[in-house]
Amino acid sequence: MADFLQQKIPIAQAIDAIVDWLTENLSGLFSLLQVIGQSVMDVMSNTLAAIPPILLILLLIIAAYFVFNKKWQMPVFILIGFVFIYNQNMWDDLMYTLTLVIVSSFIAIVIGVPVGIVMAKSDKAQVVIKPILDVMQTMPSFVYLIPAVAFFGIGMVPGTFASVIFAVPPTVRLTNLGIRQVDTEIKEASDSLGGTGFQKLIKVELPLAKGNIFAGINQTTMMVLSMVVIASMIGTPGLGQGVLAAVQRSQIGSGFVYGVGVVILAIMMDRFTQSLNKNRGKDQSEIEPIPKKRKILVGGLTAAAVIVLAIIGGVSQSDANKGALTLAYAEQDDQVATTTVIAQVLEEQGYNVTMTALDIPVTFEAVANGQADAMLGAWLPTTHEANYAQLGDQLDNLGPSLDEQAQNGIVVPSYMDVDSIEDLTDEADQTITGVEPGAGNTAAAQATLEAYPNLEDWELATSSAGAMTTQLERAISQEEEVVVSAWSPHWIFSRFDVKFLEDPEGGMGGAESIVTMARLGLEEDMPEAYQILDNFQWEVEDIESVMLEIEEGTDPEVAAQNWIEENPDKVEEWVK
């Protein structure tokens, strides 16, 4: 019996098999949904972006003034909040996030209300659906990113998919609750007057349950907003990417600013969704019906405005000169610097470049399946060996941009009296501060702990790249002992007096190259852009200078442009 209990049930393998079957057998359907969904969301985000910010702010203020019964509080809040977002250069991110929230909330409501009705009408359906909702609400939201990427790749569509799954339960539950709480006597009165089941639902139950239904809609909208940051991990653009970048780089100020942007949008969406139920608390006799002519006029004007704006969005979607390129990268200092510089160069050559931040494994997958055109952060032959082994035959290896000058290692301040990993005994509470659990650097650090007998009692504290550098900076400022798992190129070698410890066992690996990977077919589709990516090479001093300027607070685009202006000869070699 004990042996049986110790046998691990292959649940993970079963889930993997199901997902693999779905991706293989329904790939055509997923591709169609991805194309349609991406097109719709591109048009919507481009439509919003095409409206001058001042005009959109003015329209929202006017709408708020009438929606909130000509009170001034909400219009003033919108004015201050949206002007703040515009001032902080977050307007484009806001438009992407607003698109995600609107589309995801709409889909969740369209699914949630009918399912809630089914639950209210059938006790058997409730028994089946309720446990499913329990799982959906309690499952860690990060888990939804995995099937989202498997089915739809990267971008807005998988972000919407994950958001809908996470956010639909409140609408379902509160629709069910609202209908079930309708007074039985009122239902019986409807039946006695000869009303059909459909008439009873439409004219009695739904109107009386409206308060609960709109409460569910409000909660669904708020839960979609809570997925903004998480969805950015799979390339969903918007305010979430700014928050994620700030967390990974430990930029407190930037994180606060983007967080405030999310809060402003959340408050506005919360108040507007609550206002949809503006007749709550009133008897049916107190509610003034809207004249039919006014409904037709408002509906016609709204439809006309949507059509005009959609045309504007569709036109603005095709503004690229030589074509559109997507560069995938991870939110690590070296990749941010490298990708931003080459993106600036490509844009100067007439390309419309989109930078998409992803986790390392997803960057490989995005380029391999053609959703991104290139990535410039593959560390080979060691750090990203597993990713390259899995997907290398689906990638075009353009060679190194930094040839055998990259290195992982254990780093300490120069004032510590150790020169080799073998010298470590009880320094820094026998703790190595590392980065993200899934990073190649972390795997190397774990292998190093196993390779050295003197590190038997040591532990690797995984965190993030930003947390690691913050811990290093804090310890150096107080001249305390600290041991971190780091890499070069990195701005810490320009900012601090630190050193790599010798690694006689080679646990952290040897010298590596940072390699550019392109999707198959890019050479034929965009030969000039492909050639620039193929020509791209620079030195450690180049990348570290850009990284340091970014770390000191300069906007990445500005830092990249500064380097380009200071190094015209190197750029000329790339674009020739």
Strand content: 5-15%
What is the end-to-end distance?
Answer: 72 Å
Instruction: Report on the biggest sheet.
Output: 7 strands, mixed
The shape, in one word, is: globular
**Tally of individual helices:** 27
Number of strands: 9
Helix fraction bin? 55-70%
Question: Are there runs of 5+ residues with pLDDT below 50, and where?
Answer: 283-287, 316-320
The whole-angstrom Rg is 28 Å
What is the SS-derived class? alpha/beta
Average pLDDT taken over every residue: 87
Layout of helices and strands:
Layout: H1 2-6, H2 11-25, H3 27-50, H4 53-67, H5 73-87, H6 91-121, H7 123-138, H8 145-152, H9 156-180, H10 184-192, H11 197-208, H12 210-226, H13 228-231, H14 239-249, H15 252-275, H16 292-316, E1 324-329, H17 333-348, E2 352-357, H18 360-368, E3 374-380, H19 385-391, E4 395-413, E5 431-433, H20 440-451, E6 459-461, H21 465-477, E7 484-488, H22 492-495, E8 498-500, E9 512-519, H23 522-525, H24 527-535, H25 540-551, H26 556-566, H27 568-575
Parallel strand pairs: 1-2, 1-3, 5-6
Antiparallel strand pairs: 3-9, 4-7, 4-8, 4-9
Helix pairs in contact: 3-6, 3-16, 4-5, 5-15, 6-7, 6-9, 6-12, 6-14, 7-9, 8-9, 9-12, 10-11, 12-15, 14-15, 14-21, 17-25, 17-26, 25-26
Transmembrane segments: 48-68, 75-91, 97-120, 141-168, 222-244, 256-276, 296-315
Family: Belongs to the binding-protein-dependent transport system permease family.
Domain ABC transmembrane type-1: 94-273
